[in-house]
Design goal:
By secondary structure, the chain is of the alpha/beta class. About 45% of the residues lie in helices and about 10% in strands. The longest helix has 23 residues, at about 270-295. It binds flavin-adenine dinucleotide (FAD).
């Protein structure tokens, strides 16, 4: 059988369930990635969707995938354009019978899956569930009964938590389907000077995340104090920095879980080691919530149908995004985001609360801005967290407020963080 293996948010060869299935079932294979031209258009609120920061990590990850596939005698072909037209041509010219694709649950991804089914009724589409820590088949809660409050979800799943072991690359590697084509220059790396203060000081590669995991857990044992440091703002060590690797799919959440458990068995088990897994459950939680509530996560009124006193005020939004508010703490965080494509969790909570509660701006503008900028942008975690802070999502308290002055005194009392980012403005 001739198959296409379509990579999306799973740019790795190890512990990749879609790749494994495709390898085991196909005789000939065409590994591809398509950058959909739609992503270069503006969002519905006129925000560019794909910043240079996002492009840079994506291109790094794709170059790495290309190398990793070539080490097992396969080529990755990268395309730019309309996803359906590209697939149509490839299917026709290469007698493709089946497409392997990781299953996703957000609006645009489901639309794409549906388009494939309608446009190519004779092609089998294998949608492989992956991306989460808990495999959906092991969740043991019907999605319809999924609690809307995280603590109830956590206590339910923790009773019988079953996480699959990571798998290695299958021994059976299909024959490469070769193409004669010229790659679009979109995939050439642009001049990109990484800000020297960026807390994401890594290359976006499978090898780099393995080294980082080894250092963070085993060599430097930073994991043993994660719970105390996780609200930090400065440097690479206050939190795991796994998010960008997870978003691009350079590592599976299962692999991280496996190493944490091993460390707990062999070296140390404490609140901090538990808390890393706890955070990975938050990640799953938002993903599963999307399956339950679907496009409601993109509504102004959120999953709870709650009307907040906010507006699509583009003037105030501009002040926020350009770091020109009356709060130096908010501005410093926004400068960090604009300069590097990353912001700490503490920062994200504060700037989100500021936009919604202080400036009274519709949270969807902030969520779209994060979508454009964040190198770890993940549709579920981003929209889920924004709705949560805006009081229209999964927070049982609908009036959470972060006082930026108090927060700055608590988390940046020596102004170290603000000095890093505000000094550019002086
Ligand atoms: C408004 C807002 C928007 C956000 N947008 C995103 C996003 O687009 N992509 C993204 O990955 N995270 C998002 N987060 C969650 C969180 O801020 C980041 O995952 C975290 O800061 C990444 O740094 P880290 O990997 O060092 O996290 P750590 O603190 O080390 O946590 C370990 C891992 O747990 C997961 N995690 C931690 N906190 C959360 C959370 N609140 N929700 C979901 N997963 C979590 C992440 O995968 C993270 O890599 C957002 C949070 C807020 C408040």
């Amino acid at each position: 059988m001739n198959s296409i293996l379509l990579f999306t948010n799973n740019l790795r060869i190890e512990d990749n369930l879609t790749l494994q299935k495709a390898f085991l079932e196909s005789e000939k294979i065409l590994p591809i990635f398509i950058f959909d031209e739609e992503l270069l258009k503006e969002t519905k609120f006129h925000i560019p969707r794909f910043s240079i920061h996002r492009k840079n990590v994506l291109i790094e990850a794709l170059e790495d995938l290309e190398k990793n596939l070539s080490s097992i005698s396969l080529n990755l072909y990268k395309f730019f354009g309309n996803r359906i037209s590209i697939l149509e041509k490839l299917i026709f010219e290469n007698k493709i019978e089946k497409i392997y694709l990781q299953k996703e649950f957000a609006y645009e991804e489901i639309k794409f899956e549906t388009e494939i089914k309608i446009k190519f009724p004779n092609i089998k589409l294998e949608l492989v569930q992956d991306g989460s820590l808990i495999h959906l088949d092991d969740l043991q809660i019907e999605i319809i009964n999924l609690p809307d409050v995280f603590s109830s979800f956590r206590s339910k799943v923790e009773k019988n938590l079953y996480i699959r072991k990571p798998i290695s690359i299958p021994n059976k590697i299909p024959i490469q389907i070769k193409l004669d084509y010229k790659e679009n220059n979109f995939f050439e790396k642009e001049n990109y000077n990484k800000n020297k203060n960026s807390v994401f000081s890594f290359e976006a590669t499978e090898k780099e995340v393995k080294v980082h995991l080894e250092n963070y857990i085993w060599k430097e044992q930073k994991i043993s104090t994660y719970k105390e440091t996780r609200n930090g703002l400065v440097g690479k060590d206050y939190s795991t920095k796994f998010s960008t690797f997870l978003t691009l799919g350079l590592i599976s959440a299962r692999t991280i879980h496996y190493e944490v458990k091993k460390f707990e068995e062999e070296v140390l088990k404490n609140e901090s080691t538990y808390w890393v897994i706890f955070e990975l459950l938050w990640r799953d939680y938002f993903r599963f919530q999307f399956i339950k509530h679907k496009e409601k996560f993109f509504y102004k009124t959120g999953i709870g149908n709650i009307l907040k006193n906010t507006n699509l005020d583009f003037e105030r939004f501009k002040i926020w995004k350009e770091a020109k508010t009356n709060s130096d703490f908010i501005n410093a965080n926004m400068i960090e985001l604009n300069e590097t494509g990353f912001m700490s969790n503490r920062g994200r909570q504060n700037v989100a609360s500021f936009l919604v509660n202080d400036l009274k701006v519709d949270y969807r503008l902030g969520a779209e801005y994060f979508e454009s900028k964040l190198i770890d942008y993940d549709v579920y975690s981003n929209y889920g967290n924004w709705a949560y802070i805006a009081g229209v999502g999964n927070d049982p308290r609908k009036d959470r407020y972060f006082n930026p002055e108090k927060q700055a005194n608590m988390y940046d009392s020596d102004c170290k963080f603000r000095n890093i980012w505000l000094k550019n403005l002086e």
